[in-house]
């Protein structure tokens, strides 16, 4: 179940109440007259079955309460109520299969912002990957995979393409287009400093037989893994089963490939630079295509198209 709160202009409150009262997936309806101060209006609350939330949100947006008031959703972990059980039974479909589009757009939009936090996590992840490369440590590579924040913008790209939310596509593309070059440059600088201080030299990546060579060895299986990871990641996001995202993070080699680019470039191994760049490109494209395909196969492009995301 999801908890819905609507700040409604007084002249639309009766329509909001009628909508929630009549919808078979809504229950626990509460009305507070004149409770909202900014924006002014009434507050209407209800609990909504997840599989009914997308339809309810679309109809609320048709009433314009998202523009002149406000709509918020919160996850309910536990609901002890026969009325809630009945609402979930009456709502069409299964909650785990439901895509709440506005929730998905808001979540991916937030995770795709180009800000200091995103850049810091991506840079740290690439630096960890670089340490894993020069020490030939798969464990450190896996740690870099988990730290990397790149799945947020990749998911946002998929959602934006399916929903035709070009503002979301631009935001996610900017985060990736700026974030990876910055992280690679910082990693290259760290590699140069490490070589200058004698921590390692070019011999650390020379030859074959290293445990981390899979990072730059791009091939058909790279695409297969990226597609499966992208599909699993989007299924996790749309079904609110976030635990599966950890498996996604440690399946793809986006961050390790970016980290290897920085190391190999400084040490002059341009073959491995190209191989790592290919690995990075295959993973990015495979994840986005698979995630978009999952959205299309599950529920199509959705009902309601909201106005552009706020700047920031």
UniProtKB/TrEMBL annotation:
<keyword id="KW-1133">Transmembrane helix</keyword>
<feature type="transmembrane region" description="Helical">
    <location>
        <begin position="174"/>
        <end position="194"/>
    </location>
</feature>
<feature type="transmembrane region" description="Helical">
    <location>
        <begin position="243"/>
        <end position="268"/>
    </location>
</feature>
<dbReference type="Pfam" id="PF04087">
    <property type="entry name" value="DUF389"/>
</dbReference>
<dbReference type="InterPro" id="IPR005240">
    <property type="entry name" value="DUF389"/>
</dbReference>
<feature type="transmembrane region" description="Helical">
    <location>
        <begin position="280"/>
        <end position="297"/>
    </location>
</feature>
<keyword id="KW-0812">Transmembrane</keyword>
<feature type="transmembrane region" description="Helical">
    <location>
        <begin position="116"/>
        <end position="135"/>
    </location>
</feature>
<feature type="transmembrane region" description="Helical">
    <location>
        <begin position="214"/>
        <end position="236"/>
    </location>
</feature>
<feature type="transmembrane region" description="Helical">
    <location>
        <begin position="141"/>
        <end position="162"/>
    </location>
</feature>
<protein>
    <recommendedName>
        <fullName>DUF389 domain-containing protein</fullName>
    </recommendedName>
</protein>
<keyword id="KW-0472">Membrane</keyword>
């Amino acid at each position: 179940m999801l908890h819905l709160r609507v700040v409604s202009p007084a002249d639309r409150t009766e329509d909001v109440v009628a909508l929630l009262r009549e919808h078979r997936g809504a229950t626990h309806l509460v009305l507070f007259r004149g409770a909202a101060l900014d924006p002014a209006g009434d507050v209407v609350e209800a609990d909504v079955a997840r599989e009914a939330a997308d339809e309810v949100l679309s109809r609320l947006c048709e009433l314009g309460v998202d523009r002149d008031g406000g709509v918020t959703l919160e996850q309910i972990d536990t609901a002890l109520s026969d009325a809630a059980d009945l609402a979930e039974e009456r709502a069409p479909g299964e909650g785990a299969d439901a895509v709440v589009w506005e929730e998905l757009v808001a979540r991916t939009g937030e995770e795709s912002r180009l800000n200091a936090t995103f850049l810091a996590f991506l840079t740290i992840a690439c630096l960890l990957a670089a340490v894993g490369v020069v020490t030939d440590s798969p464990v450190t590579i896996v740690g870099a995979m988990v730290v990397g924040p790149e799945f947020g913008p990749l998911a946002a790209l998929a959602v934006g393409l399916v929903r035709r939310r070009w503002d979301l596509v631009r935001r996610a593309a900017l985060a990736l287009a700026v974030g990876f070059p910055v992280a690679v440059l910082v990693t290259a600088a760290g590699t140069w400093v490490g070589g200058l201080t004698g921590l390692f030299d070019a011999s650390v990546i020379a030859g074959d037989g290293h445990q981390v060579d899979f990072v730059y060895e791009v091939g058909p299986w790279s695409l297969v893994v990226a597609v499966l990871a992208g599909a699993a990641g989007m299924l996790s996001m749309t079904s609110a089963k976030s635990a599966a995202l950890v498996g996604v993070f440690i399946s793809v080699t986006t961050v390790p490939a970016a980290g290897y680019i920085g190391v190999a470039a400084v040490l002059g191994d341009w073959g491995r630079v190209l191989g790592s760049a290919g690995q990075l490109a295959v993973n990015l494209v495979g994840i986005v295509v698979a995630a978009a395909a999952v959205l299309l196969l599950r529920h199509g492009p959705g009902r309601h198209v909201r106005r552009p995301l706020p700047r920031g």
